[in-house]
Automatic annotation (TrEMBL):
Subcellular location: Cytoplasm
InterPro entries: Rossmann-like_a/b/a_fold (IPR014729), TilS/TtcA_N (IPR011063), tRNA_Ile_lys_synt (IPR012094), tRNA_Ile_lys_synt_N (IPR012795)
Span of domain tRNA(Ile)-lysidine/2-thiocytidine synthase N-terminal: 32-210
Main location: cytoplasm
Keywords of the record: ATP-binding, Cytoplasm, Ligase, Nucleotide-binding, tRNA processing
Gene name, Swiss-Prot/TrEMBL: tilS
Residue numbers binding ATP: S37, G38, G39, S40, D41, S42
Reactions listed under catalytic activity: cytidine(34) in tRNA(Ile2) + L-lysine + ATP = lysidine(34) in tRNA(Ile2) + AMP + diphosphate + H(+)
Source organism: Mesorhizobium liriopis
Record family assignment: Belongs to the tRNA(Ile)-lysidine synthase family.
Record's protein name: tRNA(Ile)-lysidine synthase
PANTHER family attached to this UniProt entry: TRNA(ILE)-LYSIDINE SYNTHASE-RELATED
Enzymatic class: ligase
Domain of life the protein comes from: Bacteria
NCBIfam families registered for this protein in UniProt: lysidine_TilS_N
């Protein structure tokens, strides 16, 4: 378990703010953002966090995301501002501007919310965003994923998630029930707002919440087991990446066939390498990956999956980016090309793929399979200037990323993410902020 049990947060019949915060290694004097919507969970988080901050000299900034989906949202944000002012804390309303999608609105709103909070963290120099997700939310999340048969996802929401490689999203209430939080608010005569969308049966989470036939104890045990398995599998896959994977030429990855002997860990490492080679934010489909893995184990084969070309030659599996569907980007500093690279400086022109004109430049590359080297280099970044001339960019112009973990890294996956960062020479990910628990994730 990465966080304490609900019993650990109780002291003399009330919630103990210090016990809730204790598992997280947040330095004294840190800037924190409390994401507060006005509902019971986030208001309780704010009150508990304010109490815990007194001896830690934290500077708490309250932020409310106004999605603009309901006419009452502006008034609700104002109410949160009044509560923040009563506590003597600064408050900012972050508005989701622009057109909203007609389908998948909750997922889109969630993505927009986290991006707005992360941008605010960048603005004020904060490394931590805290949200009020509860044990009830965790149970609903795992239940939904259980119904879908989601293996890795059964570990549920992580107590800590790294956003864009820099800002930690922390969830200190994940093992505290909503009932206890509302008792805390009632004892302090703090009113909260009930969002009507939390009762709208059009949304899957609401339907799960209203269906009480499942065993919550079973769900929590399932989650704990899945978390333990996910961390262990990630550690094993990380060892495979460190020992059996390499990048012998720009954009060209290799995985030694010895990985087949490591069962699920070998397959997990393979899926992660596919996502990295293909510039994908998510690992490829488990069943399709497993089918391809078995074919590769049987002998030489060439295939594509998740935007990557995969080829077995003798005792080696090779991977590189397909040249199809690589979108160009304006050559501005910090822009991300194809999910794989971040530009270090602005340049006059557009970043595109090298294309068929790519040629090997190193003596080491000449020792490798020429078709694979050329195929990998064709997908590397190049600059197309105003004249239309294509110029290959040297590696000092951009930094490599780890696509499946560059934007969102759950603490469960830290070991594998660090091993992949080492493989690509990418920036090392910061360790999860757990006091006395880093060894479980490193």
């Amino acid at each position: 378990m990465l966080t304490r049990s609900p019993a650990d947060t109780l002291k003399r019949g009330r919630l103990d703010p210090d016990a809730l915060i204790e598992p997280f290694d947040i330095p004294s004097g840190a800037n924190l953002i409390a994401a507060v919507s006005g509902g019971s969970d986030s208001l309780a988080l704010l009150d508990l966090l304010h109490a815990a901050s007194r001896k830690r000299n934290w500077r708490i900034h309250v932020a409310t995301v106004d999605h603009g989906l309901r006419s009452e949202s502006a008034t609700e944000a104002q109410t949160v501002g009044e509560r923040a002012a009563w506590l003597g804390l600064p408050h900012r309303v972050l508005r989701w501007e622009g057109p909203k999608p007609s389908t998948g609105i909750q997922a889109a709103a969630r993505a927009a919310r986290y991006q707005l909070l992360k941008n605010h963290a960048d603005e004020i120099g904060s490394d931590f965003i805290l949200t009020g997700h509860t044990q009830d939310d965790q149970i609903e999340t795992v239940r939904m994923r259980e119904v879908r048969g989601n293996g890795r996802g059964l570990a549920g929401m992580a107590p800590a998630t790294l956003l864009d490689g820099r800002v930690w999203l922390l969830r200190p209430l994940l093992e505290t029930g909503r009932h206890d939080l509302r008792l805390w608010l009632n004892a302090r005569q703090i009113d909260w707002i009930d969002d009507p969308s939390n009762s709208d049966p059009r949304f899957e989470r609401v339907r799960v919440r209203k269906a009480q036939e499942y065993d919550k104890g079973h769900i929590l045990r399932l989650r704990a087991q899945a978390e333990k398995k996910r961390i262990a599998l990630g550690i094993a896959a990380a060892q495979i990446v460190r020992n059996l994977a390499a990048q012998p030429s720009p954009g060209l990855l290799s995985l030694a066939a010895e990985a087949f002997a490591f069962g699920d860990a070998g397959l997990y490492a393979f899926r992660a390498l596919i996502a990295c080679a293909g510039g994908q934010e998510h690992l490829p489909d488990p069943s399709r990956s497993d089918a391809l893995w078995r074919k590769l184990e049987a002998g030489p084969i060439r295939a594509s999956l998740g935007g990557a070309v995969i080829e077995r030659r003798k005792a080696m599996i090779w991977l590189h980016r397909e040249t199809r569907h690589i979108a160009g980007i304006a050559a501005h500093r910090d822009k991300v090309f194809d999910g794989r690279f971040r530009l270090k400086s602005s340049l006059p022109g557009t970043i595109v793929a090298n294309g068929a004109a790519a040629r090997p430049t190193s003596s080491r590359a000449n020792e490798l399979p020429p078709r694979l080297v050329s195929g990998a280099m064709a997908a590397q970044p190049a600059l197309r200037g105003e004249s239309g001339r294509l110029v290959r960019l040297d590696e000092e112009r951009f930094e490599p990323l780890v696509p499946p973990f560059a934007r969102i890294l759950l603490a469960f996956d830290t070991s594998l993410a660090q091993a992949l960062a080492g493989l690509f020479g990418a920036r090392k990910f910061p360790s999860p902020p757990y006091a006395g628990r880093k060894d479980r994730l490193a």
